[in-house]
Amino acid sequence: MTSTLAGTGESGGPVDPRNAFKLLLSCPSGLPPSRVSVDFHPSYDRIPHPDANLEDSINEIWNRRLEENPSLYNGKKFRYAGHALRHVDGLDQESSVCLHLGLTDYRTFVGTNLNPLWEKFLIPSEDDSVRCQHTSSPLGNGAIVETSDNRILVLQRSYNVGEFPGYFVFPGGHSEPEELGISDHQNDKGLTQAADLNRKVSQEMFDGIIREVVEEIGVPAESLTDPVFIGISCREMNVRPTAFFFLKCNMESKEIYQVYSRAQDGFESTQLYTVSRDELRKMALRMPGCHHGGYTLYELMIQTVEDARQSSVSTMIA
User: Fold this and answer.
1) Burial class (CB in 10 A: 0-12, 13-18, 19+), 13
2) What is the 8-class DSSP label of residue 224?
3) 11, 80, 130, 193: which has the highest count of C-beta atoms within 10 A?
4) Phi and psi of 235, rounded to 5°?
5) How big, in percent rounded to 5, are the helix, strand and coil portions of the chain?
6) What's the sign of the alpha-carbon dihedral 231, 49, 102, 97?
7) pTM for the model
């Protein structure tokens, strides 16, 4: 596992700053639920900024957004506040990761990460959890879905969505605290209850990405393999973190196109593409930074698989 790798785009051409990213965590071997845990605790919640005017701008921006769109919903989100790596005998394939998650909401996300003054919320630090301690930083999710005919699913975002209209993205959204009945921290929980809640939140990370793929693409859940966690990417603009997962679908591209037209959340996108690895590399340059980073996490996973295969062949020959 590795962390804190940065990327922008292919060298030699102009770089879209919205496409820049940082890899906060890379797990190229792909981790199943048994190797991903969560520490969900109020100590990982956002810390209010000491500048009262900056804090007041959160409500001001939210109220303006509500006037423009009264249907906005201030839903709860899991807040990303870092992670801890755990190794067994120093072997990467035996490693696991613990995600540090707090609680935030959409209003605070709009008022901090998406605030025109978002950079003022940041603290100068090499530690991202410190640097972003005053931002909402909800942990998004994204899915790299491979079809049975070896294509990757990519969506083009609708021009009616708030963030990055018209950009290419992988299916995704957020794991939802409200799916677990979480609306606030229950500080009176004992150790057993807290451990149980942590397990449920960890499982929601995996259940949530399946739910997003089903709702956005329209494929049935039973057509998908169990997801594996491949890392976390952060868009440099707005410091937007997203957890990425890899999974396969047992349907061919032509079948998926047919069900996409009936997808529950199809309004969020205008077009579905099933692309080759080479086509995906070019499309990644027209993705928001967090999803461009997701593409890089996928490439690191593919390279790890290819290296392992080559090593296996060399061992057999020897």
Assistant:
1) exposed
2) B
3) 80
4) -65, 130
5) 40, 30, 30
6) positive
7) 0.91
